[in-house]
Specification:
This protein is mostly helical. The chain contains five helices and no strands. The chain is rod-shaped and about 115 Å long. The relative contact order is 0.14. InterPro entries: HlyB_4HB_MCP.
């Protein structure tokens, strides 16, 4: 009778241990999925929004230059500079990859150069020569912004793949858990019901 109780206890302990072990594995996979989704939102979508807003600021500057509207360009200078600096600060708080950091550093340098050219633009009578320098600088900034936008898309895809792999892991482990529980149940039944035949 005691051996029967021990068999039952061992069988139940084995099932409980299996359930606890799979629970820890599932938690890890769900955490990876959650981190992947959070990263897509916080570090990709929000970063993409900052980039988009910077592109709008740059395009407004390009439009004013193309129209030859110097007075409006100069009036909007400080406000635009402050908005761009706020966007740069916001973007810098997102998680950056190495490549993204390199392009972002280059963007910051290009923007500082733009602000320096704009400052000289405000005080120089030769607007035409400085205007071409401004256009070239705005093109450089646009190129950096486009590179950053491409990085957001590529990193977003990578994070989606991480989440997808974690989901596939969860599916596989769930199927594996079911089969293991079935096999353990069969083994427990065999152990419990097995009665050695006595030889007389």
């Amino acid at each position: 009778m005691i051996s029967q109780k021990i068999k039952w206890s061992l069988g139940l302990l084995l099932v409980v241990a299996l359930i606890i072990a799979t629970n820890f594995i599932d938690r890890n996979n769900y955490q990876r999925i959650q981190d992947s989704v959070a990263s897509i939102y916080e570090d990709r979508l929000i970063a993409k929004d900052y980039i988009f807003d910077m592109q709008i600021e740059v395009h407004e500057k390009e439009l004013l230059l193309a129209k030859g509207n110097d007075s409006t360009y100069l009036k909007q200078g400080n406000g635009s500079k402050n908005r761009i600096n706020e966007l740069i600060d916001g973007f810098s708080e997102t998680k950056l990859t190495r490549e993204e950091q390199r392009v972002f550093t280059n963007l910051q340098e290009e923007i500082e150069a733009l602000f320096a050219i704009e400052a000289s633009y405000a005080t120089t009578p030769e607007k035409l020569s400085i205007s071409s320098r401004l256009s070239a600088q705005l093109n450089s900034i646009n190129n950096n912004l486009l590179q950053l936008a491409d990085i957001q898309i590529n990193e977003g895809k990578r994070q989606m793949q991480v989440g997808k792999k974690a989901m596939e892991s969860v599916d596989l482990l769930t199927q594996l858990e079911i089969w293991i529980v079935i096999i353990i149940a069969i083994i427990i039944q065999i152990v419990i019901l097995y009665r050695p035949t006595s030889t007389d």
